[in-house]
Amino acid sequence: VLENQDLQDSIKPQKVEFHSLNFNTTLHWQPGWAREARDALYFVQYKVYGQSTWQNKDECWGISSHVCDLTHETSDIQEPYYSRVRAALAGVYSSWSLSCRFTPWRETVIGPPMVTVVHSNKSITVKLQAPRSPYKRKRGSKIPMTNYYDLLYQVFIINNLLDEQHRVLVYEGKDKVIKIQDLRPGVSYCIVAKMYMPMLDHSSAYSSRQCTLL
Hints:
Layout: H1 2-11, E1 14-21, E2 24-30, E3 41-48, E4 55-63, E5 67-69, E6 81-89, E7 92-93, E8 97-98, H2 104-107, E9 114-119, E10 124-129, E11 132-136, E12 142-144, E13 152-159, E14 167-173, E15 177-180, E16 188-197, E17 202-203, E18 210-213
Antiparallel strand pairs: 1-2, 2-5, 3-4, 3-6, 6-7, 6-8, 9-10, 10-15, 11-12, 13-14, 13-16, 16-17, 16-18
Subcellular location: Secreted
Pfam families: Interfer-bind, Tissue_fac
Keywords: Disulfide bond, Receptor, Repeat, Secreted, Signal
């Protein structure tokens, strides 16, 4: 019995955590500390906070991976969720490892916007597209993150003549197309943008830089 108890403890999953980007939500965990834990299989359950019964996640039932996609199961974004994972090896099951409480609306990370740059000789037109959630409208298009939060675009310009790292904020607002005027011909400029949420004072990461030579 003692050996079984040791095995149960040594294969128990560690660090069970939700990771979420634009409501694409996955559960991650690390294997137990035993060397044999590499060969363990994992079983994932989830529930809304306050519910008494756990639901099995069928696609993550007896898997060898350390990641489980719970995007669909956490689609009520204001609700708090829990998940838990147990491991099995050689007919022995570990106890359950519980995640922290996870509320998608509060905790998902908002990604940067997509940026497209079109230039003329003295100006740059910047087209912005908000990141999209995995959830779809009836017509099938994915719902942008701007539907769920009051988000602003922040657009920065980098003048490569002056300093690669010096970003100047040239626009903050909700317009998806902006024009930056009175630039110098023959100079290379780069544009980066991010999403900004005033209410929670959160910013996304910067978009990848789009550069153009006027």
